Amino acid sequence: MNIFIGGAWPYANGSLHLGHIAALLPGDILARYYRQKGEEVLYVSGSDCNGTPISIRANSEGVTTKEIADRYHNEFKETFNRLGFSYDMYTRTDSDHHHKVVRQIFLELWKNGYIYEKEIEQIYCESDNQFLPDRYVEGSCPNCGSRARGDQCDACSLILDPMDLTNRSCKLCGNEPTVKATKHLYFQLSSFQEQLENYLTSAKANHAWRENAVHLTERYLNEGLRDRAASRDLPNGVSIPIEGYEEKKVYVWIEAVSGYYSASKEWATLNQTDEKEFWNEQTISYYVHGKDNIPFHTVIWPAILKGIRQETLPTHIISNEYLTLEKRKFSTSQKWAVWAPYFVEKYHPDSLRYFLTSNAPENRDSDFSWREFIHSHNGELLGAYGNFINRTLKFIEKSFEGTIPDRAINTEIEESTLNLYSVVGQLIEGGHFKLAIDSIFSYIREANRFFDVQKPWIQVKEDRESCLDTLASCVYIIGNVAQLLSPFLPFSSEEVRKILKLEEFHWKPIKVKVDNISNIQPLFARIDPSTIQEEIDYLEKQLKNVYDKGLG
Predict the structure, then answer these.
(1) Sign of the CA dihedral 479, 482, 485, 487?
(2) Cβ within 8 Å of residue 129, ≥6 positions away
(3) Using CA atoms, how far apart are residues 143 and 164, in angstroms rounded to an integer?
(4) For 237-386, where are the alpha helices, taking DSSP H only?
(5) Is 209 exposed, middle or buried (0-12, 13-18, 19+ CB in 10 A)?
(6) In terms of DSSP bridges, do strands 40-47 and 316-320 run parallel, antiparallel, or are they unpaired?
(7) Mean pLDDT of 246-251
(8) Nearest to 356 by CA among 321, 391, 395
(9) How far apart are CA 56 and CA 52, in angstroms?
């Protein structure tokens, strides 16, 4: 079975924060799980280096878009690496390869009759002497009245055109723009209405999409799909390969999602293989992103694929709700955020992976609080999981000179372990990562109760054979828990694998071969609870600095 996993492409205009990581982490869990299961996996993503956010950031700093893109692309790669993301291909949208593939897709849409020329009215800034694309325009959303960008309203998720906004202002200078006539190329999105309705019906029947994706897509389809501009006036991006439009760029909503295909082709070229093995009707695909990206993955990308006669539509949509921070929305402008590079410098990556999975915003918004994070680390990772491993292995090291007992495993434990692989696997494949990791930690808590009931510290004195049986079953649990947790907590699982001298992980029960262990150290270090207030103080200091500068 071939599994394709596409992680959303973050804009390379600023550091990643924990909200971004929460939305993207399920992709890595899926990739690691399916590889462990023995399936062929292609997991791709990259940095969006062509969008208007990069241009806006470059203008504000007085540097080139390339300088901004290079800075954050490199930072993203380092951050993802330190958090254990196992991309097969992490690339960028300003590469020559990506530009080539996007132009091919655009030309194919043009040849198939889905791109056409249209004279329109467009927002124009007299002060800056230029037409203003999407995010260069801000104003009031016509649907909910919230302050919105020219491409989408974050408050109600409505896809917008800058002309839809009221109370418009130029992002560059703040002045009220005017309206001028111009010509642009349009994508005939409306022609795919019926096909996408059928596509949604099938997705609902297969229960392959998150509920938020189903409901939002239904809303768009019920409102009726509108044709959308496919070109824009910007200096950076993918040049349009059609005569008369060479100075315009492919609109980002076409260009960015095409990155999944271009990254696949780039991976295939580097590995001297064919990307088609992951782009056929037998492929199972997962697209992982935040809910603000839903329409681009359930409406626009499927329409593009149908427009180029590519029938490999997304099968699973993993669209997280929002992560808040201390009960407030993440805000990059107000510096109300925990930045991922800051986090990985101070804390264990598995601590974050655990917290963001066990508290995942799968069905509703969830909150990252420093209090809950540190308590979950000290209580679950250190107190339950780490403690079980440490108390078992240290006891063997002390009482049996580090020799792991070669004994029959408790039958009930064997049966529950086998069942756990099945349950957790089904939950992961269905996109229920929170329930999956909760199931594993329920098993860990049962393991601790088993240890306490058996009392090996008494058995070793009164019934040495029973003590050996107990410890053998506990080591069996440790080996299998490490294997089960490997997609979620790869760093600590790898440590356990090395301690127990296990082979490569698979997705089936394993038995630990008899061997010696020594110098057992805790998997996790306790975090001092005083850190909670220190981190909150740091957050509030960031916020205060913004307001003191008059930016809040």
Answers:
(1) negative
(2) none
(3) 10
(4) 252-255, 259-270, 294-295, 301-307, 340-346, 349-358, 370-376
(5) buried
(6) unpaired
(7) 92
(8) 321
(9) 6
**120 forms bridges with which residues in the sheet?**
182
Give me the amino acid identity at 221.
L
**Confidence at residue 52, expressed as pLDDT on a 0 to 100 scale:** 77
Residue 390 lies in a domain: yes
H or E stretch covering 81: helix 65-82
Lowest mean pLDDT of 41-45, 181-185, 352-356, name the range: 181-185
Token digits for 525? 């270090």
295 and 355 fall within a common domain:
no
157-173: b or e for each residue (b if 16 or more CB lie within 10 Å)?
A: bbbbbbebbeebbbbbe
Tell me, yes or no, whether 100 and 197 share the same domain.
yes
Q: Residue 244 belongs to what domain range?
A: 2-114+188-320
In a domain, 162, yes or no: no
Encode 123-174 in three state secondary structure: EEECCCCEECCHHHEEEECCCCCCEEECCECCCCCCECCHHHCEEEEECCCC
Residues 186/116, Cβ–Cβ less than 8 Å: yes
Strand partners, 166: 140
Please check the confidence at residue 393 and state whether its pLDDT lies above 90. Answer: yes
Q: Is position 12 within any domain?
A: yes
What CATH code is carried by the domain that includes residue 88?
3.40.50.620
Total number of domains in the chain: 2
* Six token digits for residue 323: 């992560």
End-to-end CA separation in angstroms for the chain: 51
Instruction: Determine contact, residues 539/334, Cβ cutoff 8 Å.
Output: no
Spatial neighbors of 375 by CB under 8 A, at least 6 apart, are none
Q: Which tens digit of pLDDT belongs to each residue from 92-102? A: 999 999 999 99
Task: Confirm if 447 and 470 have CB atoms less than 8 A apart.
Answer: no
353 and 284 in a single domain? The answer is: no
- The answer to whether residues 507 and 33 touch, using CB atoms and an 8 Å cutoff, is yes
Residue 467 main-chain phi, psi, to 5 deg:
-65, -45
Q: What is the pLDDT of residues 99-147, one digit of tens each?
A: 999 999 999 999 999 999 999 888 999 988 888 878 889 999 999 999 9
278 lies in the same domain as 354: no
pLDDT band at 232 (very low <50, low <70, confident <90, very high): confident
Q: What is d(CA 180, CA 120) in angstroms, rounded to the nearest whole number? A: 8
- 545 part of a folded domain: no
SS3 49: coil
Averaged pLDDT, 159-177: 90
pTM of the prediction?
0.92
pLDDT exceeds cutoff 70 at 249: yes
Do 205 and 350 lie in one domain? The reply is: no
The encoded tokens of residue 446 equal: 């049962």
* Token digits of residue 341: 């590079």
Residues 387, 259 within the same domain: no
**What backbone torsions phi and psi does residue 173 show, to the nearest 5 degrees?**
-120, -10
Please say which residue of 285, 320, 355 terminates a domain. 320
Tokens at 552, concatenated: 């809040």
